[in-house]
Amino acid sequence: QVQFVESGGGLVQPGGSLRLSCAASGSIFRIYAMGWYRQVPGKQRDLVAKITSDSSTNYADSVKGRFTVSRDNAKNTVYLQMNSLKPEDTAVYYCNRYPFVGAWGQGTLVTVSE
Question: Over the stretch 95-109, which tens digit does the pLDDT of each residue have?
Fold first, then answer.
């Protein structure tokens, strides 16, 4: 079973940037589409960005132009570069395959606040 370990979250002021990382286990990581998801307490977990095995990308309208997803198959890692952060981006961020399967990692908390 593939496992995911997210990192890179933290507290940042509005307009700031963060880069999230997600390390995935498994030797066939490269064939999977991957997604970054986020969840605010009391709300559903939503897809933020996805990247296919050939690095085609798609973004939720709310983050388009501000977030960039990328992957390094040699390191079994997917990244989310987040720029021009807004308070409404505050959430726990998770990665998983797209569509998601299996267990979720612990996520990484992003807080955008003065």
Answer: 999 999 888 999 999
